[in-house]
Amino acid sequence: MQPRMLETGRLRYMGIALGLGAVLIGGQPRMSFGAEPPTSNPTVQERLDSLEKKVDARGIWNTLGFKASGFVDVAYTHNFNNPTTNLNQLHIFDTNANAFMPHLAQLMLERPADAGGSGMDRAGFRARLNFGSDARVTRARTNFQPGTSNNELDFQELYAEYIVPVGNGLKIQAGKINTLIGYEVINSFENPNFSRTFMFGLGQAFTTTGLRATYTFNPLVTASIGVINGWDNVDDNNKSKSFEWLLALTPHERVGVSFYGSYGAEQSNSQGAAPAVTEADPTAKRTVVGSIITLKATDKDTIILEPYYGNEGNASTVKAAGNARWNGLGAYLIHDFNEQWSARIRGEIFEDAGGARTCTGGVNFAGGANTCAGSPYGGAAGVGGIPQTLWENTFTLQYKPFPSLITRTEFRYDKSDKNVFLYGSRAVNNQETLSFQVVYLF
């Protein structure tokens, strides 16, 4: 063989070896300066990019209209009375005295129904899942006796909705939904103050399970009506259904007036737990009515008033076969210094004339630390109560360093016409607490 041919063969083999080495090291042969990779042979990364464009999870999520959100709520509450029970008597969620509490971690997935859409756009849902100590209080009664579980996991809301294309759109919701009753709600950061009123915690429902219809007649008038199992009932505790309603009026851009109420049998015919004086009566009716009046006095000041009345047949714990009555009035003043700083003042009076709402339950029971010093029944769950009139004044300073971060400092003074609070181990008629709260929204 000629030397020239041998040299040419060696160079060819060297070129093949170098090319294979480049493939093994760099994934593809080096290109000459200025050359473009062949479009017919895409790289692995290019193929992955192409697949991600075809199956974009974020794009599908947005197309379906799903929304995810939530928050974390933690707080510390100091009780100046230092009660030996380590409980803030008659408080609802801030139950633990001189302690930190992981109140709530909430996750919410929803697809709001769109009245302006068509077909599937008019259908929606909400699933709001709660973790934490507040879930002990807000969980609805199922087929278990109230107060026998320390369960800290609860679906606060779980419902489907559809907007019927009638007029302005008739919204139909079915499932477990926050109640129409009252101004305050379960989520603390949605209220003006950290702690809740006696009215909300001891005299109103938290959630309802059933069917609700809502219709907006015009920008001034919206009405809702529902057929429900009852107060905080997932499984109905009797054979009757209750009704709830709300009429919201906006006569002026700075004025709002709402009228709400519910009516129906709420006492159990299957779960025992009768009061001390009278047996449970599943035919007795509970009626509550109230109003929420909101006035935007200035650009920085908001005033809210809530008068409230409740009455239930054969529910009194102090008079056999007597009606129980409870009523109250709450007033709020909110002053926004700017977008970050805000001061909130609340005053409330709550009368439990029949002893049916106060001093009748335990910590893990709707009503939070609903036990009292001096109760003739020892504050045991489901027995007796103390007829009394309660007052409270609450002062809250809120600071939001970022829109997603809320911090609050709150001082609260409670007073009763009976010695239902504890000063150490001694029964007294007043209680003072100081709370610090942090909420992170996401």
Topology, pairings included?
Elements: H1 3-26, H2 44-54, H3 57-64, E1 67-79, E2 99-111, E3 123-131, H4 134-138, E4 153-164, E5 170-178, H5 198-203, E6 207-218, E7 221-228, E8 242-252, E9 255-265, E10 285-295, E11 301-312, E12 324-336, E13 341-352, E14 388-402, E15 405-416, E16 421-423, E17 426-428, E18 430-441
Antiparallel strand pairs: 1-2, 1-18, 2-3, 3-4, 4-5, 5-6, 6-7, 7-8, 8-9, 9-10, 10-11, 11-12, 12-13, 13-14, 14-15, 15-18, 16-17
Overview of this structure, please?
- The chain contains five helices and 18 strands.
- The chain is mostly beta strands and 442 residues long.
- The protein folds into two domains: 35 residues, no CATH class; 377 residues, Porin (Beta Barrel), CATH 2.40.160.
- A 16-stranded antiparallel β-barrel has the order 1-2-3-4-5-6-7-8-9-10-11-12-13-14-15-18.
- A hairpin with a 2-residue loop joins strand 6 and strand 7.
- The termini are far apart.
Query: What is the number of E strands?
Result: 18
Shape: globular
Counting structural domains, the number is: 2
CATH class label of the largest domain: Mainly Beta
Poorly predicted runs are 1-39, 142-148, 271-278, 377-382
User: How much of the residues is beta strand, in percent?
Assistant: 35-45%
As for the CATH topology of the largest domain, it is Porin
CATH homologous superfamily descriptor of the largest domain: Porin
Mean pLDDT: 83
Helix content: 10-25%
Structural class by sheet pairing and helices: mainly beta
